[in-house]
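[Automated response] Your request has been received and processed.

Submitted sequence:
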Amino acid sequence: MLDKEISQAVIGRLPRYFRYLGELKDNGIERISSKDLSILMKVTASQIRQDFNNFGGFGQQGYGYNVEYLHNEIGGILGLHQKHHLIIIGAGNLGQAIANYMNFERRGFIFKGIFDSNPELHGKSIREMQVQPMENLASFIQEQQIDIAVLTIPKSAAISVAEKLVQCNIKAIWNFAHVDLNLPNSIQVENVHLSDSLMKLSYNINRAENT
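Generated structure:
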């Protein structure tokens, strides 16, 4: 079932389904129809069914979806049944904010260390993790079996740091640096440009004001 190629658009919607289903489960809702889920999420029921059909459907005609089962299945598709060990590279404001966001642990993302090239930050404690120098990076990744590196560093340093991470056999990079990383296909990269999201918001404001 998962051998087929799934579009990135569908994959991009899975975390939102997971989040809404988690809230329904927490509220004691045991079953929901695609119609009711569509009203809640403000997407069409047809879109929901099409997305779920990529993975076998999950539901039964006229019976709806078992919320807990569907939540667990989507969590499994997203790989949330296993823990991922992360490090942060860049101990500035954004790096500290991400390190202090407790909700990641609920999803199985465990921060193990934080690194920075600024000697003045070395030894600073951020959520019981001491900021380490970049010289410790390679050995730390190997010893702690790190899966994912989070980059919260300037654009000028991101490419060279990413290349070093490739040499360290990192599996994935969550990149907040303002540059798209082009790395070997074996490295999974999620480029996050905060300014792009803000400009999209600006567009929607402008469109609303001119309609």
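Summary generated for your ticket: The longest strand covers residues 109-115. Strands lie at 31-32, 65-66, 84-89, 109-115, 125-126, 129-132, 148-151, 172-175, 188-191.
If you did not submit this request, please reply to this message.
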